[in-house]
Amino acid sequence: MELVDQTLSGNRRALARLISQLEDDSPLAAQTLAAIYGHTGRARVVGVTGSPGTGKSTLVSELAKAYRRAGQTVGIVAVDPTSPFTGGAILGDRIRMRDLAGDPGVFIRSMATRGSLGGLARATTNVVQILDAAGYDVILIETVGAGQSEVDIARTADTTVVVEAPGLGDEVQAIKAGILEIADVLVVNKADREGATNTVRALQAMLDLGTAPRRALHHGVTLAAEQNPYSAPDSAPAWRPPILQTVALESKGITEVAEAIARHQAYLAESGEAQPRRRRRIESELLAILRETLLRRLMDSVSPADVSQMVERVAAREIDPYTAVEQLLASAYH
Ligand SMILES: Nc1nc2c(ncn2[C@@H]2O[C@H](COP(=O)(O)OP(=O)(O)O)[C@@H](O)[C@H]2O)c(=O)[nH]1
Ligand SMILES: [Mg+2]
């Protein structure tokens, strides 16, 4: 656990090596997380999500610069294969991000999208926890808001910023992906383009439609507030996501976004929402680990020879696949 000690004392190379080692070694991940867990819980975690091309990477790098100017250290986790942080985007964008890469107060990590998306969500959570333990003040997670697992990743943040851009038909996509539901701050980027005010208006209208108190997701099912043991006290006024316009490319409106994030974090602390949110996050993390562990243990308990034999029997139409699975589980060594 020498790497862990070095990471906790701020060694960047140790941090990078630790993260790489975790990527495919889950027993090691479990050990490492056990060793660092007591040092986590201090960073402010901000998710930035939205459709491809809305300007998330540009916004994230501008936000990172704003936090750096305020003297804060920043970890960036990019879960986006086309991210300029990964070298995936056009040259101009990469050049713009170069000053971040040379800054010792910034640590950038891009997540490989290999493996299952569920695994990616886990891996991302692990990296965020390590950056937190390593002492980064703010952690920015960039995800492409395209599906449920990206939404799951965004949900691991204290504050989620949803980025839209004019003229992409994003308003409609946002509803489909349920992404508006998780927005704490809405940003209409590319406000230099035509149609930005229309996008703002559309988002405003959608927020008006959804003014019912926000409900917490429990096991992926929406529960009424009174049924949810983790819901905030009734007296807390609901948070209405502000809608902000930015031109990330020209660094316009960035301070306002950082301020809105800070206001949301103050709201979380003052309203008593922070605790239930943390609990929900820990609950879903725990359930994910439980599911993974159960799956692995059960799979390990089924003998490969028995599986081959069942394949033969199903192929011969002696037995159907469902019955075959029941028999395999019955004969597994628990
Ligand atoms: N016109 C305009 N272009 C922008 C703005 N922000 C980002 N872009 C450009 O939009 C493209 C996509 O940006 P990127 O940050 O990679 O978007 P992502 O896919 O959401 O991460 C890039 O070519 C950026 O230079 C903006 O505010 N205005
Ligand atoms: Mg990107």
Q: Could you walk me through the main structural features you see in this protein, from its secondary elements to its overall organization?
A:
The chain has three domains: 1-39; 40-292, 3-Layer(aba) Sandwich (Rossmann fold); 301-332, no CATH class. The protein contains 14 helices and nine strands. The protein has helices at 2-8, 12-24, 26-36, 56-69, 91-96, 98-101, 117-133, 148-155, 170-177, 196-209, 254-271, 274-301, 304-315, 321-331, and strands at residues 44-50, 74-79, 106-110, 138-144, 159-164, 185-188, 217-218, 221-222, 243-245. A seven-stranded parallel beta sheet has the order 3-2-4-1-5-6-9, with helices on both faces. A two-stranded antiparallel ribbon has the order 7-8. Strand 5, helix 9 and strand 6 (185-188) form a beta-alpha-beta unit. Helix 2 (12-24) crosses helix 3 (26-36) and helix 7 (117-133) packs parallel to helix 8 (148-155). The longest helix has 28 residues, at 274-301. Bound molecules: guanosine-5'-diphosphate (GDP) and magnesium ion (MG).
